[in-house]
Amino acid sequence: MGLFKAQAGRVYNLEIRFNNHHLVPGQVIPMRRGAIELGGRPVTEAEEMLQEAERAAREADVAIVAVGLNQDWECECYDRDSMKLPGKSDELEPPSSYHSSVISDVEIQPLKTTSSIANTPVAILSFMVQNGPEKELRDFIKVELGAGEKKTCSVQLTMEAFAYSDTSANNSTVDAGDYKVLLESTSRDIKESVNMFIETKASLLEYPKLK
């Protein structure tokens, strides 16, 4: 994204060039489509906009906030360095309607609600892998719990969970290397983690070769 500060009263000649043959990280073929957006807006400071949003939230009975990227610019993980929201959106962190859950023991996962009402907590399995995204969601399970109730749940982790679509091989591939499996109640609340190592890179068609 480029940013140009214009002066009031001046006339500018603009030339926009677009090339879709530059490969983005992780791609092996050029993109067949692209998008360009040209427009203008008043110059604003991020901190001022954050304070304005906080004032609006304080004056409202309920704040329903829609944030993130729109459908024109949202891509599949290769366009961002992290899963953080754009700008200072993460700093808003308004009080929300929520419940907390307690998760323990990686092999057997008891879920216990600490809420005074019935709810449905979620146990999340994510991966961290070297030279990959900071974290990838791979599986999750929802469990309906009454107030103070405790249940045991399990999630089966197969080799398919480690695979990704490899266009160069025209197949799904599992990379060799170190992996860390995370058990979470939310993306920010890691309860347990397990380190593991896959010795051999192979496609899912070569599943018996995987170790």
Automatic annotation (TrEMBL):
GO BP terms: carbohydrate metabolic process
Q: Which SMART domains match?
A: Fn3_like (SM01217)
A Pfam family assignment: Glyco_hydro_3_C
Reaction(s) catalysed by this chain, per the record, are: Hydrolysis of terminal, non-reducing beta-D-glucosyl residues with release of beta-D-glucose
The UniProt entry, under InterPro entries, shows: Cellulose_deg_GH3, Fn3-like, Glyco_hydro_3_C
UniProt keyword Cell inner membrane present? no
- Going by the entry's taxonomy, the superkingdom of the source organism is recorded as Eukaryota
Keyword Hydrolase found: yes
Q: Under the GO molecular function aspect, what terms does this record hold?
A: beta-glucosidase activity
Keyword vocabulary terms for this entry:
Glycosidase, Hydrolase
**UniProt enzyme class:** hydrolase
- Give all residue intervals belonging to the Fibronectin type III-like domain: 127-187
Q: Give the EC number(s) under which this enzyme is classified.
A: 3.2.1.21
Q: What family is this?
A: Belongs to the glycosyl hydrolase 3 family.
What name does this protein carry? beta-glucosidase
Gene (UniProt): bglH
